[in-house]
Write a structure and sequence with these properties.
Oligomer: single chain
CATH architecture of the largest domain: Alpha-Beta Barrel
Radius of gyration: 23 Å
Bound molecules: zinc ion
Helix content: 25-40%
CATH superfamily of the largest domain: Metal-dependent hydrolases
Largest sheet: 6 strands, mixed
Number of domains: 2
Order of helices and strands: EHHEEEEEEHHEHEEEHEEEHEHEHEHE
Shape: globular
Strand content: 15-25%
Structural class: alpha/beta
CATH topology of the largest domain: TIM Barrel
């Protein structure tokens, strides 16, 4: 990826140039119509079957005005030529499943829990700012960030800072706190007498579910994120089992509320009862979807449910094969690939998502990612 330059990143740089020019006294009219021709050895335009060689992209303001073979047109008067040499240019990438606030340490440094127990919100926000810049630099011009892992509405503020030009970053769709049930999300494993923070907003019953959705929408959620499964393990028959969380009635209250606001609901669901409830409750997207039955795939096609499989993160950092978690790690990838192929062939709508965000996209899955921590 090092030799690739992304149009979105270039566009952002140009926007910054515009702002700089405005602040130095150039007339607003001149600053608003900057014209730049970007020249590159190859262009992946997203529709042609092959990369196009030696192309020039003419950008007026923040819009691509034309694309043509290099040198086939004269440079417009006043235009600046940005020659990228041997670089390949491609459209900005979209990651539909990120967590810019999921930046836990390796277990020796405190793991997932240390983020919620010991890190000041300002520290987590500062690292999220670094994550958004890195997203852009690694080619992602849009991310759907599906919850802040106990950092409250921090994503709303980061998005605001990007949108007003305070910090660099991709276009963000944010989910804020996410929703699960009692017993359905960490922090876990502490003495019952001790109240610990949770990485999601926990609800019990349709009334609390709807209230949580209203709160999150009120505070700026573009999507509602719901955890429909939590712990998972391999049972005595060698099958993957996932603990379900919300009931259909609880989920329906959330979906009904979100749809009323013209917002959508993303459901983390591995398999089994929880995944079925996600579909019956009207989720707009299934996140992960490790094991999806033929009937569930047919239901997704029928209902127009999106599938965001986040395939890559489950292939790394496996525990030893003879341990319960090691068995689970292997089983997850075994069933995931099968489900993905079935969904692809059945025509399920599939979106690209990684579960990356808080760590670089060049790292497959450090031990701080969603795929790692115990509930998986
Ligand atoms: Zn995730």
């Amino acid at each position: 990826m090092r030799s690739s330059i992304h149009l979105g990143f270039i566009a952002l740089c140009l926007a910054s140039l515009c702002r700089a020019q405005e602040s130095t006294g150039t007339t607003a009219a001149a600053a608003s119509v900057q014209v730049v021709a970007v020249r590159a050895r190859a262009l992946i335009d997203g529709t042609s079957p092959q990369p196009l060689p030696n192309q020039e992209i003419l950008i007026r303001g923040d819009r691509i005005a034309a694309v043509y073979p290099s040198g086939s047109r004269p440079l417009p008067a006043g235009a600046r030529l940005l020659d990228l040499g041997t670089a390949t240019v491609l459209p900005g990438l979209i990651d539909c499943h990120t967590h810019i606030f999921l930046q836990g340490e390796v277990p020796a440094a405190g793991g997932y829990d240390v983020q919620l127990l010991k890190y000041p919100a300002s520290y987590r926000a500062a690292r999220a700012v670094v994550a958004t810049r890195r997203a852009l630099e690694q080619g992602f011009t849009t991310i759907r960030d599906v919850e802040t892992e106990g950092a409250g509405y921090g994503d709303v503020g980061i998005k605001q800072a990007i949108n007003d030009g305070s910090i660099p970053g991709p276009r963000m769709f944010v989910a804020t706190r996410a929703i699960s049930t009692t017993g359905g999300y960490p922090l876990e494993g502490y003495a019952p007498e001790i109240v610990v923070p949770k990485g999601a907003q926990l609800i019990d019953g349709p009334v609390e579910a709807r209230k949580a959705a209203r709160e999150q929408l009120d505070h700026g959620a573009d999507w509602i994120k719901v955890y429909m499964t939590h712990r998972s393990w391999v049972d005595e028959h060698g099958e993957l089992v996932s603990q379900p969380t919300l009931t259909v009635e609880e989920l329906k209250a959330i979906v009904d509320e979100a749809h009323g606001w013209r917002r959508k609901v993303a459901c983390h669901a591995y398999n089994g009862i929880g995944l079925q409830r996600a579909l019956d409750g009207g989720c707009d997207s299934i996140e992960h979807g490790l094991e999806i039955t033929d009937a569930q795939i047919a239901q997704m096609v029928r209902q127009g449910t999106w599938y965001v499989p986040t395939l890559a993160v489950y292939y790394y950092d496996w525990d030893p094969a003879d341990t319960p978690t090691g068995m689970r790690d292997r089983k997850r990838t075994a069933v995931h690939g099968v489900s993905f192929r079935k969904a692809l062939h059945a025509g399920v709508k599939i979106a690209f998502g990684t579960d990356v965000g808080g760590f670089p996209w060049s790292i497959p899955s450090p031990r701080n990612s969603r795929a790692w921590w115990s509930s998986g």
